[in-house]
Amino acid sequence: MNALGRHERVGEETERRTMKPGTLRLDQILLAFTGEMDRHTTGGPASDRDLRRLEASIGHRLPPSLRAFLLHLGGGLFFNGHEIFGAQRVMIHDIELVPDIISMRDWLARTRDLREGLIPFHRARGVIHVLDLRSNDANERVSCLDGPDDYPNLAGFLETVVLPRRPVF
């Protein structure tokens, strides 16, 4: 069990990786995720209505790439260890669930110094990543909540951190 009380999964591919320039487009990344659905547990794609309610609750529009990801796959557990938060909680099995974005944001606001406009969307091995919705930066910068890791956009983050190192398509 790690510092956040989460059970680490055997064989999860969540080791730290050096950021590389994004070589894949978001549509290619979504194809890679879709090609390995047997390695994911999701709540299914979010509806546009779900995402509009989420945006109203957080007071910001979701970045286009996160919106596309959630519309295509939804939140859940990906590649055996990467939680990606969505519009709704996802039950993994009888004693574990992946929280939704709002629940995770509220928990972090109560327990840590989560600044307004930072939206948690990913957790693996207790490391939480956020998107900064405060700027008009089209690059959709991703930051590690507790460390120096910084990624220029969601596609680069997904390619570097979440996708397995071996080719998936």
Features:
disordered N terminus; SMI1/KNR4-like; single chain; 9 strands; alpha+beta; 20% strand; 169 residues; 7-stranded antiparallel beta sheet; two-stranded antiparallel sheet
What does this structure look like?
With 169 residues, the protein is of the alpha+beta class. It has a single domain, classed as SMI1/KNR4-like, CATH 3.40.1580.10. The chain is 29% helix and 20% strand. It has 5 helices and 9 strands; from the N terminus they run H-E-H-H-E-E-E-E-H-E-E-E-E-H. The strands form 2 sheets. It has a 7-stranded antiparallel sheet with strand order 1-2-3-6-7-8-9. Strands 4-5 form a two-stranded antiparallel ribbon. A hairpin with a 2-residue loop joins strand 6 and strand 7 (127-132). The radius of gyration is 15 Å and the shape is globular. It starts with 25 loop residues before the first helix and ends in a 7-residue tail after the last helix. Mean pLDDT is 84; it is low at 1-16.
Question: Can you lay out the helices and strands and say which pair or pack?
Answer:
Elements: H1 26-34, E1 41-42, H2 48-58, H3 64-72, E2 76-78, E3 82-84, E4 90-93, E5 96-98, H4 101-111, E6 118-124, E7 127-132, E8 142-144, E9 150-151, H5 154-162
Antiparallel strand pairs: 1-2, 2-3, 3-6, 4-5, 6-7, 7-8, 8-9
